[in-house]
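Kindly inspect this chain:
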Amino acid sequence: MVERDSRMPVYGIAVAAQLLGLPEASLRLFEAKGLLTPARSDGGTRRYSDDDIARLRRVTDLRDEGINIAGIRRVLDLEDENASLREQAEDGLSGG
C-alpha cells in the first residue's frame, strides 16, 4: 500500500470538522485568526491535510487548557520555530 504524504490536502471542511468533532465555523475562525492556512482547490474550497488535522488537534488541546487564541498562535509559532531549528541542526550534523 502506498503511503500518502501527510502534507497533501485531501479533506474538505465538512470532513475535517467531523474528524475533529468541531463545527465548521470553528475551523473558519481558526483560519481567520491565523492558526493555519488550509490549501484551496481551484474553485476556492478549503482542503485540509493530515498535518493540518494534527495542527487543529493541537489548537483544540491548547484551547481546552484555557489558552486564548493569541496565546495559541504564539505557542504554535514557537513550536514551528523549534521544529525548523531542529531540522537545521540535523541537516548540519548530517552534512546536508
